Amino acid sequence: MEEAIKSAFKFEKYNILRSVISRKSDETPKSLQISFEPKGTHFKEDGRFELSLDIRIEDEDKSLLIEVETVASYSLEGEVSDKMLHSFFYINAPAILFPYIRAYIAALTTLSGMSPINLPTLNLTQLAPELEKNTHWV
């Protein structure tokens, strides 16, 4: 039996820092606009990466607003190329975190007495340039 290859990139933990639901109607929203604000901090000395991913969800007539601020920690072991670093931090980190945020929003809306909002599975690779621009190296 072959031994599995161990990844150099590891998802450590995530925390929901803030969440808000504001609604002006009991009606189920028909169309939602979802926006993201990604930011990162790369701690070069110990190979850690911290991703802040804020999500804002509104319906088209502004009767529903959901905001969730999340932070996740990742670690990187060993030496990796700049190309792999880019892939790990800017492409994979948001994709790893997003399912947790989706589940949180579904639970939050359900427990708030409204129909659950189940966000679609999204390809977040388009966040990479903004995340790279908003990442600080310390």
Give a written overview of the molecule.
The chain has one domain (13-137): Bacterial Protein-export protein SecB. A five-stranded mixed beta sheet has the order 1-4-3-2-5. With 138 residues, the protein is an alpha+beta fold. The longest helix is centred in the C-terminal third of the chain and has 30 residues, at 82-111. Helix content is 26%, strand content 40%.
Name the CATH architecture.
Roll
Unreliable stretches, pLDDT < 50, 5 or more residues? none
Number of domains: 1
Terminal-residue CA separation: 42 Å
- Residue-averaged pLDDT, rounded? 91
* Strand/helix succession: EEEEHHE
The number of helices is 2
Shape: elongated
Number of DSSP strand runs:
5
Biggest sheet statistics: 5 strands, mixed
Order of strands, widest sheet: 1-4-3-2-5
Radius of gyration: 17 Å
- The CATH class, by name, is Alpha Beta
CATH homologous superfamily identity: SecB-like
The secondary structure category is: alpha+beta
List keywords for this structure.
single chain; 138 residues; Bacterial Protein-export protein SecB; elongated
Topology:
Layout: E1 9-23, E2 32-43, E3 48-59, E4 64-76, H1 82-111, H2 128-133, E5 135-137
Parallel strand pairs: 2-5
Antiparallel strand pairs: 1-4, 2-3, 3-4
